[in-house]
Amino acid sequence: MSKVCAVSGRGPLTGNKRSHSMRATRCKWNVNLQKVRLVVDGKPQTVRVSARALRTLKKQGAI
């Protein structure tokens, strides 16, 4: 299963971890995905939504 938000399309970010001596090692930060039941096209479906998008949906009253 891909680590992409179904609502916002956010995916994992990549970059460098930096140690105290500033050595760079490649690192990947995944999205905080949560399983939520949403009404899509009139039917309830379980979708994987990022925590940030879930917070926004709750603020807008969609959930």
From TrEMBL:
One of its GO terms (cellular component) is ribosome. It comes from the Bacteria. Coiled coil: none annotated. GO terms for biological process: translation. Keywords: Ribonucleoprotein, Ribosomal protein. It holds the Pfam family Ribosomal_L28. One of its GO terms (molecular function) is structural constituent of ribosome. Residues 1-21 are annotated as: Disordered. InterPro entries: Bacterial_rp_bL28 (IPR050096), Ribosomal_bL28 (IPR026569), Ribosomal_bL28/bL31-like_sf (IPR034704), Ribosomal_bL28_bact-type (IPR001383), Ribosomal_bL28_sf (IPR037147). Gene3D superfamilies: Ribosomal protein L28/L24. Belongs to the bacterial ribosomal protein bL28 family. This is Large ribosomal subunit protein bL28. It comes from Faecalicoccus pleomorphus.
